[in-house]
């Protein structure tokens, strides 16, 4: 097998592992990884603003808003205008949202992070550099992505990669 084939097989295995865990997570909790990440950010930051959530988890405000719409429809979050500045909207978990978040299984990235942090510093740096180079080789540097392990579309609009550059 050629080296690039071996690399592509490994990438497919990673994608498949993420997909399988995401399906398990959704089946057990009814929530997606992006929803749990947003809920985690809200739980850790009382009355947080959408823009701040988006910044902390490296997603666009539009993507976070879409996720919040689904969570709000399920009664897991509420958005309220702040008393200080009526233009700003704060987000908080409802009691139902807090319970759903606390009862959800751990995210796959927690398992990954524990193993990653057990590596030597040089190995961590090497892995980060290699994955950044792979993302660049796939023209994926500008894609909307959070530091969470999730596959599938999490943004309401599809993203097209322009390989003509």
UniProtKB/TrEMBL annotation:
Query: Taking every annotated instance into account, which residue ranges of this chain make up the domain HTH marR-type?
Result: 4-136
State the UniProt keywords alphabetically: DNA-binding, Transcription, Transcription regulation
**Which Gene Ontology molecular-function terms are recorded?**
DNA binding; DNA-binding transcription factor activity
What InterPro entries does this protein's entry cite? HTH_MarR-typ, Tscrpt_reg_MarR-type_CS, WH-like_DNA-bd_sf, WH_DNA-bd_sf
Key word DNA-binding present:
yes
Q: Which domain of life is it from?
A: Bacteria
Q: Which residues form a coiled coil?
A: none
- Which protein is depicted? HTH-type transcriptional regulator sarZ
């Amino acid at each position: 097998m050629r080296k690039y084939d071996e690399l592509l097989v490994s990438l497919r295995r990673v994608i498949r592992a993420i997909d399988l865990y995401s399906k398990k997570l959704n089946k057990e909790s009814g929530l997606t990884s992006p929803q749990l990440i947003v809920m985690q950010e809200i739980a850790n930051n009382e009355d947080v603003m959408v823009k701040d959530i988006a910044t902390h988890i490296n997603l666009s405000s539009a993507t976070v808003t879409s996720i919040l719409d689904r969570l709000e429809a399920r009664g897991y979050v509420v958005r309220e205008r702040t008393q200080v500045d009526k233009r700003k909207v704060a987000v908080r978990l409802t009691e139902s949202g807090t319970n759903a978040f606390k009862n959800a299984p751990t995210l796959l990235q927690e398992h990954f992070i524990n193993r990653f942090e057990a590596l030597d510093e040089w190995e961590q740096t090497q892995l980060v550099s290699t994955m950044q180079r792979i993302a660049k080789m796939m023209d994926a540097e500008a894609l909307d992505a959070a530091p969470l392990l999730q596959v599938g579309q999490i943004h309401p609009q599809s993203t097209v990669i322009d390989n003509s550059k």
